[in-house]
Structures are given as structure tokens and as C-alpha cells.
Design a protein that fits this description.
Strand order of the largest sheet: 6-5-15-14-13-7-8
Pfam families: Fer4_7
Number of helices: 33
Number of strands: 40
Radius of gyration: 29 Å
InterPro entries: 4Fe4S_Fe-S-bd (IPR017896), TAT_signal_bac_arc (IPR019546), TAT_var_transloc_signal_dom (IPR030948)
Shape: globular
Protein name: TAT-variant-translocated molybdopterin oxidoreductase
């Protein structure tokens, strides 16, 4: 059989006596539906109590009602071009290749523009462009149209000209030279050859100047270790596709560890491959404290504190290199880690170990272990250049500022007042700096208190270059003219260096020596150039001393706080981006917040709790966090997190920003204040305080409701030794008193689907990491509205695509039922139910993207009274918004719960002050997809605008569509290959082959909906 596990989304579901769970299962509408004066204003709507039945009685199912609903949509007059630009063809998209690196995220991109407006981020699929966009980069296009951006330069808080800015900085430099004061350039990691060259020239002209590199989220200890061994500050670019055994010690490499972008290579090794009966996938061990994306994907996850992880790393080092450094590790942990270490050693060059422990000795052991393995995944060829920061130099700068020895401080791409843990010291030192300038996208916490706040353009308005890995070179090109009066930092450097011309001229000239063998135009077209990939010569260090030092590290008193970055906000640069704020965290499914995650055992000791309330919302306790050196963070919301290591708590960085943010986006608490010494592990105490926090959490809103065939999974052993009927069990139904396969029974006659195109979407649960790039890509492509925290809490999220996260415990549904039936007496029932309510301390996790399944026998179509939803021969379930009168019958009849109802008009509505409420923000809207009005249903359209555009383009060019041309927003954004879209009538297409795979199954096959979205059974290598 595929799986006999019990799956659950929230701890509350494990309570067999919970009235809330029962209410949510049986009540489609968790609150009374306010339908009186359905098309009236929001005030009347929110206060109404008229029932849906009364509403339908009043209006009836008439054409007049449909017309009335349609007439409520806003009317806008079209204004034609007076003089049409030659390069713009209305209705035709242009694409520009570019690359991005903002100091934290990086990718090789294609930018879609319409009528001169960038509206969508896509991945560059050219050879050599291996870094795909994550959720934050997909959302960065909305940050271009952020109305809170710094619109012009300011001096002393007042508008100024760029001539004034350059003049003031030059005067400051002259004064610093005359007085013997220091000049410091403080930047994030640049990874830009031309900018680094400009800075080198600046330092040459100013002997009293220095350059300090600062990363808000530091990898300094890893850089120090690599530099000790190889003589260069860089990071290894691991290739997980070459590994059969992966051991991660505290490294969330499917998240943001060392920049991320490892998911593609990882996924290649996770899809079963090879001859039938002996197919293989990689085996993944994860040792960690917080539940992460990497831990969720692991075959074996060991929840342990960072202190124990250090001992485990030494134990693995002993096993692989044959050392005998004494370790102090609990027997249970020791046995599990020893198994992982033995398998890693046996794998040899097919094994790899990574670690996120911020300790130089730990990182030296990582290098030693991979060297001993001769790991193919570990290569010093083409090292990553995306982290260069030095904790030591940043500390020296703050000390120099406080001492008054820094005369001029010029900053670019950093916000130390917000991100530095000792920001008070920085602010104190800044007051002693004669001239300070911050080149910033926003008037943030730092720019608001510097002498000069210099407005810089968004990367989509800029020229630039990046070298993410050694040997590769990418160009950044503007896709729109600057929206505001902005100027690139490089332009100012040119002025300060006395170099004539523009940065474009300088960039083009400096690229000549790098792109040898190609041309500027070709690289600009492709967006990427791959040259000679240099290797770093092998080195060594005193690994034995590092192992002994690490083994002597002691457990910190109190609880261990592990700081991390969330998939949505990262380091916090895009905190004013509503797409990212509303993006549910893949693990907790909470949006619009950061919070402290606590294990169930620690929560009971500290009397902390979570509770799902009557309307489906999640409430949680508050706690105060206090570090060993007295730093206090008050009223931190609490999430009881299954899988959190006992004795540890987690907290996300990137929240708590206030400056240059809309009020709705000023959420969460600033955890950087706890990031002492740039160490993400701190010793803290946690104390409960009064009050309940209201979370915007979607995890309890669409439950499994007892149906065990939504997630199908098996083990690699069973997959290879049993027939598909065993591990991909087919649902059976009764037909004429005989058991037959549900898929063979139809209530309706099927139409001929073999003519023309017929679209299917394949989703492989083995390849999906839950990263959420598809969710944001769908947001951008389909003009999905942002509704805000209050509406999310009321089960009114509008995401067309959701990624369900399921925990699985060792119990089975059948086992649970049997235990309940065998209960004898009151005392037995109390003890039994108490045991069954206990959440697994370390559950397995499954992610499942769910959108409209585009059923060929769609339940929604049969109940729509006005035929607003209908089916096409191409397999797409359509929505005619103008016909919809908002009965919500279709949503009630949908077994997948994928339809969304527009309770309000979310565009141009002051109650929803997000990007759709201002003219600038609406520039991101896709003109191929209409903005839905209030009172209608909406859902995934399988990106019909994209499929039709592909058909029309091929028709105009007189050619046959090749496999891979058809894409949806989600499939094109998916970098792991989890989502494959195409035409099943093209028998040579990839999706046509996948639909015949024995791992294929549909959601709720026994219902008989015959979806055009199908899934692949998850195989675990346990």
C-alpha cells in the first residue's frame, strides 16, 4: 500500500474531542455570510445578516441578476497612443535578459514587459544561467512600483539636486584628507567586477579610504575557514545532483543557507531513476533545531540543539577520517549520527556533508570531511562570490566611528541601523561622523538619519554586472526608464574618481577583458556569459585542533535561540512588499508575522499554547525573550512547532521594520537585536506574558478531513519490490454490487478529448520542496489581490495556488479507529485519547501544491445556476466573471476547495491599501488578465492567456508547437521540475509520458472528477 500514516496539518486536528475541528469540517462558511445589499458598499456588507437563501429569493437566477453583477465592474476609458513608440507593439510582450544580486538574493532572469512596463519575472533558461528566481525575486518586480521608495536625493532631510550631492561628498573627502580623518565605503557584498574596479580606483585616489563589506546575515565564519584552507574568501558551490548520501548539520540548503539555489540539483537526485525494480534516489540526513525546508525534505531528520550538532559533527569527522576525538553526545543521538556517518563514509565520493554552524572550527571540519571523501558534490571550481562580509572589520568600523576617527562614511546597499545587533553603538558613532551618505532604495532607518539620503534606482532600472560564481558573468540591464529622480552609486563613484562618461560606457569598456570570445551585444542578449572556470588550489589546516576545540564547546544555559530567515521576507529588504507579507510560510503556514517557535514539550513547561478559534483563526500566547547579556524582546507571539528540537526555540530575522513602510506592512519584531556577534545561536530565557496573539494562519482552514488518499507515499524498498497496485492503491467503488476501480465508473458521458490540444499539469511530490516560487509567480501573472491579515484570518485568502503542508505521524487512520473502538470505560478513554492527541515530536513533512484541478467531470460546472463556469476541449475549466452572481455553489461543491470569492473590490479600495490601491502599484498588473470585481468567484485558469498566446504565436509563424513551449506561471517558476505542464495529445511530450507513469495518481480519484492535474506518489529513501 502507498501509506498507512495519519496526516495532519495542525496539532488541533489530533484532538478527537475538539468541537472546533468538527465545526471546521462540517461548516463550509465559518461565519455568517453578509449578503444583504450584495452589490452595495463595504459598510453595509460587513454589518448585514441577510442569508444567502434570502438573497437568491430576492434576485432569482435571471439574466438581469447577472447583468447587474457585471455592471458593478469599474469602467475605464481607453486612451490610444498619440505617437506610438517604434519599439513597442501594443499587446505584444518584450523580454529582457538580466541578472540580479541585491546582497542577499541572486538569479539569472528574463523580465517580461508590456507597453514599457516590467510586469513579470521569469527564469533565464540559457546555458550557464543556473540560478533561478526564488519567491522573493519573483516578488521584487512589485518593489519596483513601491510608492514608499525614496524619490529624490535629500541633504539634511530636504530635497536636493544630484549636483549638490556630488559637491557635498567631494567637499567631505577633501576635508577628511586635510584633517587626516578616515573615509570608509560601507557596502554589502557586491559581486560586481565593474563596481569593485571603481572602488579600487577610488581607494587609489584616496589613500585615507577603506572599503568594508557587511552582510546583514553573516557567513563570515565559513569564509574565514575557507580562506584559511584555500587562501580566498569564497563559498563552495555544492552540486547535490552528484550525491547519493547527503548529510546536513544545521544547514537549510533548500532555504537561504549560503544564498540558496541548491534545490534544482537536489531535486535531480530525489526523483526515482534507473531500471525498474532497482530505481534509486539520494538519501538525505538532516540534523537541525528548527524545522526547515531541508528538514521537511529529509529522509531522516534528527532534531537536536546546535550544541549537540557540534558534537555530532565531530563524531562524523571521527568516522570519516579515522580520528578519535572524544565527544559528549546522548546515546540516542550517538546511535543515529553514527549510522549517518557510516553511510556517508561508505558513499565515498558520492557523499557530501554541509553545515550551517557559525563556528570556524565547525566549518574547517566540513572542509576536512569533504576532502577525505573526495566528494564530487564539493568542488572549489567556480566558487560562489555572493558573501564577502567580515564580522571583524564591521566591529572595527563601529569602534572607529565611536572614537571619532571616521570623517566621511559612504554607504550603499546596507541598512546597519536596522540590521546591526549593536545598532545603538552604530547610531552613537554616526553622530561623530562629519559627513554620512546612504545610497538607498528607501529612506530607511539608516538613510533617514544620515547627512545625505541618495535615492538609487531599482535593479530593473539599472545597468550593472554580476559574477555570482567565478568564471560566470551576467549583465544587469534596465527594463524601464527610472521612475523617480534616482542615480546609481556607480555614477557617483565615477564622478568622485573624475572619470568622464556614463556608467554604461564604463561597464561596457570594463567587460571587454571578461567576455573574451563573445561580444557585448551577445552577452546582453543572453544575460549570461560562461568563461574559464578557475579552480582554487587545495590546501589544508590543523583539522585535529579544530575538532578538539569544537568537541570542548559547552551547552549554553537556558534555552537555545536559533535565528533564521523566512522564505517570505529573507533579510527584510522587501518588507514593504505585500505579496511577500501575505505569502504563507511553508512550514507554519503563517503570514504577516514572525514568531518564536517552541517544541510541544517546552510549551507545556512554559504554559505556552496555540488554539484554533471559532472562525478558523489561530491564536497563540505571548512570550518575552531575554538573552544572557540582558537584551530583551517583549511580547513575541508563540507558535508551537512540531519538530522543534526540545530545549531550542526559533525566531525569524527580517521583521520589525518601521521606516519607509506602509502601516499595514509594519509587522513583527526586529530579531536582529538578538544577533549578537553575528551568531545565529544565542542563550535565552522565555517567559510567558499575558494576552493572546491573533495569527493570520491558513493551516487550519482547509483540512484533510479524514481522507487518506490525498497524500500518497511509500518507501524506496517497497517501491522497488512491490507492484504498483500495492503502493499506489486504486480506490474501489461498488457497481452492480461488484467492486470495481473508481476510475472506470462515470456518471457522465465523456467528450472526445483527442482533438486539438489537451492540457495536463504534472506535480511530482518527490521534487517539490515547498519553496513557494510558484505561489508568487501566480500572484504576478494573474493579478491575484492581496487582502491583508484580517481577511486571511477569516479564511478569505485569495491565492489561486496554495502549497499544503502535511505532517505525518506514525499512527494510521485505521489504527486510530481501532483504538477508539476498543476503548473500555471512562478511564481507558481518557488515557487513550490523551495519547492520541500527542503530536509527534519529530514528524515527517509532505508538501503538496493544490490549485484548480480542471476536472473533466467538474462538480462546480453542474451546480452553477448561470453557467459562469464551463469546460473547454483543451481541458481548462473556465470562469466567465461577467456571468457570475456569486452564489458560491461552485465553491461548496468543489472537493478541493480551490475557488476564491471576492468579498470586496480589492483594487482602488482604501480599505486594502496595498499595491492595487495606488496608480504606481497598479503598473505591475498584467493587461492580459482582468482585475476581478467584487461578488464573483475566481480561481486558477491554468494560465489560459499563456497557452493561447503560445498557440497564436506558432500559428502566425506557421510552425508546430514544440514540447516545453506551453507553460503556466507555476510550471515556469518551478526550478526543481516538480511541475511539468504540457499537451497530453502530443504523445512525445514529457507530460504525456508522465501521465502514464506508475507513480501517477489524481486527488480524490474515488469522487470521479477526472482532473487534468495529476500527482506522483512520494517515495522516501528511509
Amino acid at each position: 500500500m502507498s501509506s498507512n500514516k495519519k496526516y495532519w496539518k495542525s496539532v488541533e486536528e489530533l484532538d478527537g474531542n475538539s468541537s472546533i475541528v468538527e465545526a471546521l469540517k462540517n461548516n463550509e462558511f465559518v461565519e455568517e455570510i453578509p449578503t444583504d445589499e450584495f452589490l452595495a458598499n463595504e459598510g453595509a456588507l460587513s454589518s448585514s445578516s441577510t442569508t444567502r437563501r434570502d438573497f437568491l429569493k430576492y434576485v432569482g437566477f435571471t439574466t438581469a441578476a447577472a447583468t447587474l453583477a457585471a455592471c458593478e465592474g469599474p469602467v475605464h476609458l481607453s486612451i490610444p497612443y498619440v505617437v506610438q513608440p517604434e519599439q513597442i507593439i501594443p499587446g505584444i510582450a518584450d523580454y529582457y535578459a538580466t541578472s540580479v544580486f541585491d546582497g542577499f538574493d541572486f538569479a539569472n532572469l528574463l523580465v517580461k514587459t508590456r507597453e514599457g512596463r516590467p510586469i513579470k519575472i521569469d527564469n533565464n533558461k540559457m546555458a550557464g544561467a543556473k540560478f533561478a528566481a526564488n519567491a522573493r525575486i519573483h516578488a521584487s518586480i512589485l518593489s519596483l512600483y513601491d510608492s514608499m521608495r525614496l524619490k529624490e536625493p535629500k541633504i539634511a532631510g530636504k530635497p536636493a539636486t544630484w549636483i549638490d550631492v556630488d559637491s557635498k561628498i567631494k567637499t567631505g573627502l577633501a576635508e577628511a584628507k586635510a584633517k587626516g580623518g578616515q573615509v570608509v565605503l560601507l557596502t554589502g557584498t557586491l559581486a560586481s567586477p565593474s563596481t569593485e574596479k571603481l572602488i579600487a580606483e577610488f581607494l587609489g585616489k584616496n589613500p585615507n579610504a577603506s572599503h568594508v563589506v557587511y552582510d546583514a546575515v553573516s557567513e563570515s565564519e565559513t569564509l574565514d575557514a575557507f580562506e584559511t584552507v584555500y587562501g580566498e574568501r569564497a563559498l563552495v558551490d555544492y552540486d547535490f545532483s552528484k550525491a547519493s548520501i547527503i548529510v546536513s548539520v544545521g544547514a537549510d540548503f533548500l532555504g537561504d543557507w549560503q544564498g540558496g539555489s541548491y534545490d534544482s540539483g537536489y531535486a535531480k537526485g530525489r526523483i526515482p531513476q534507473g531500471p525498474k525494480g532497482s530505481q534509486k534516489i539520494s538519501r538525505h540526513f538532516q540534523l537541525e533545531a528548527n524545522m526547515t525546508l531541508s528538514g521537511a525534505a529529509a529522509d531522516k531528520r534528527i532534531a537536536m540543539s546546535t550544541a549537540n550538532q557540534k558534537q555530532a559533527l565531530v563524531l562524523i569527522y571521527n568516522s570519516v577520517v579515522g580520528a578519535s576525538v572524544p565527544v559528549t553526545l546522548d546515546a540516542k543521538f550517538k546511535a543515529e549520527v553514527t549510522k549517518a556517518a557510516q553511510q556517508l563514509k561508505a558513499a565515498g565520493s558520492k557523499g557530501v556533508l554541509v553545515s550551517g554552524i557559525q563556528d570556524k572550527n565547525a566549518q574547517l571540519l566540513v572542509l576536512a570531511i569533504n576532502q577525505a571523501l573526495a566528494s564530487e558534490s564539493f568542488s572549489t571550481n567556480g566558487t560562489r562570490q555572493i558573501r564577502k562580509g567580515s564580522n571583524e572589520k564591521v566591529a572595527q568600523l563601529v569602534a572607529a566611528m565611536k572614537a571619532g576617527s571616521v570623517h566621511t562614511l559612504i554607504m550603499s546597499g546596507v541598512n546597519p541601523v536596522y540590521t546591526l545587533p549593536n545598532s545603538k553603538d552604530f547610531v552613537e558613532g554616526l553622530k561623530k561622523v562629519s559627513l554620512s551618505a546612504s545610497f538607498s532604495l528607501r529612506e530607511d532607518e539608516t538613510a533617514s538619519i544620515t547627512t545625505i539620503a541618495a535615492a538609487v534606482p531599482h535593479y530593473l532600472e539599472s545597468w550593472g554586472d554580476v559574477s555570482i560564481t567565478k568564471g560566470t558573468y551576467g549583465l544587469t540591464q534596465p527594463t524601464i526608464r527610472p521612475v523617480f529622480n534616482t542615480k546609481q552609486f556607480q555614477e557617483t563613484l565615477l564622478s568622485l574618481n573624475g572619470i568622464p562618461g556614463t556608467y554604461y560606457d564604463y561597464l561596457k569598456a570594463s567587460s571587454v577583458s571578461i567576455i573574451s570570445g563573445s561580444t557585448w551585444s551577445q552577452v546582453l542578449h543572453d544575460g549570461i556569459f560562461v568563461g574559464t572556470v578557475p579552480s582554487v588550489s587545495a590546501g589544508s589546516a590543523d583539522y585535529a585542533a579544530a575538532a578538539n576545540a569544537l568537541a570542548k564547546s559547552k551547552t549554553t544555559p537556558g534555552l537555545e535561540l536559533v535565528l533564521y530567515t523566512k522564505t517570505g521576507l529573507g533579510d527584510g529588504q522587501q518588507a514593504n512588499n505585500p505579496w511577500l507579507q501575505e505569502f504563507p510560510d511553508p512550514i507554519t503556514r503563517v503570514s504577516w508575522d514572525n514568531y518564536v517557535t517552541v517544541s510541544n514539550a517546552d510549551a507545556k513547561l512554559l504554559l505556552l499554547s496555540n488554539e484554533i478559534v471559532a472562525n478558523g483563526g489561530l491564536n497563540g500566547s505571548y512570550a518575552t525573550i531575554k538573552t544572557a547579556d540582558g537584551v530583551v524582546l517583549e511580547n513575541v507571539p508563540v507558535i508551537v512547532q512540531p519538530g522543534q528540537a526540545v530545549g531550542t526555540v526559533g525566531l525569524a530575522l527580517g521583521y520589525g521594520k518601521k521606516a519607509a513602510l506602509k502601516e499595514e506592512m509594519q509587522v513583527g519584531l526586529n530579531a536582529y537585536s538578538l544577533y549578537k556577534g553575528f551568531n545565529n545561536v544565542q542563550s535565552v530565557t522565555l517567559t510567558k506574558v499575558d494576552g493572546d496573539h491573533e495569527f493570520a494562519c491558513v493551516q487550519g482552514q482547509k483540512t484533510l478531513m479524514g481522507r487518506g488518499d490525498i497524500i500518497k507515499e511509500t518507501t524506496l524498498e517497497i517501491f522497488n519490490t512491490k507492484d504498483a497496485e500495492f503502493w499506489n492503491e486504486q480506490p474501489m467503488v461498488s457497481l452492480d454490487h461488484k467492486e470495481v476501480k473508481a476510475t472506470t465508473v462515470d456518471l457522465w458521458d465523456s467528450f472526445d478529448r483527442s482533438v486539438g490540444h489537451h492540457f495536463n499539469l504534472s506535480i511530482d511530490l518527490n521534487a517539490c520542496t515547498g519553496c513557494g516560487a510558484c505561489v508568487i509567480a501566480c500572484h504576478a501573472e494573474n493579478n491575484v489581490p492581496v487582502v491583508g491579515k484580517n481577511e486571511i484570518r477569516r479564511s478569505r485568502d485569495m491565492h489561486w495556488l496554495r502549497i499544503d503542508r502535511y505532517y505525518s505521524s506514525e499512527e494510521t487512520f485505521a489504527g486510530d479507529n481501532e483504538r477508539k473502538e476498543n476503548i473500555a470505560g471512562l478511564s481507558s478513554s481518557l488515557s487513550t485519547f490523551n495519547e492520541m492527541e500527542h503530536a509527534s515530536d519529530n514528524p515527517q513533512v509532505s508538501f503538496q501544491p493544490v490549485m484548480c484541478q480542471h476536472c473533466n467531470h467538474a462538480p462546480c460546472e453542474t451546480v452553477c445556476p448561470v453557467a459562469a463556469t464551463s469546460h473547454s476541449r483543451q481541458g481548462q475549466n473556465h470562469m466567465a466573471y461577467n456571468r457570475c452572481v456569486g452564489t458560491r455553489y461552485c465553491a461548496n461543491n468543489c472537493p478541493y476547495k480551490v475557488r476564491r470569492f471576492n468579498w470586496f473590490l480589492y483594487s482602488e479600495n482604501k480599505e486594502f491599501d496595498f499595491h492595487m490601491n495606488d496608480d504606481l502599484g497598479r503598473m505591475v498588473l498584467n493587461p492580459d488578465v482582468n482585475v476581478r470585481s467584487r461578488g464573483v468567484m475566481e480561481k486558477c485558469s491554468m494560465c489560459i492567456q499563456k497557452t493561447q498566446a503560445t498557440i497564436l504565436a506558432a500559428k502566425n509563424e506557421g510552425r508546430v508547437i514544440v514540447d516545453g513551449e506551453f507553460q503556466t506561471a507555476c510550471s515556469s517558476a518551478c526550478n526543481t521540475g516538480a511541475m511539468i505542464f504540457g499537451d497530453v495529445n502530443d504523445k512525445k511530450s514529457q507530460v504525456a509520458k508522465l501521465v502514464e507513469d506508475e507513480r501517477m495518481y489524481h486527488l480524490l480519484e474515488h469522487v470521479g472528477t477526472k482532473p487534468n492535474v495529476f500527482y506522483h506518489v512520494k517515495v522516501r529513501n528511509t
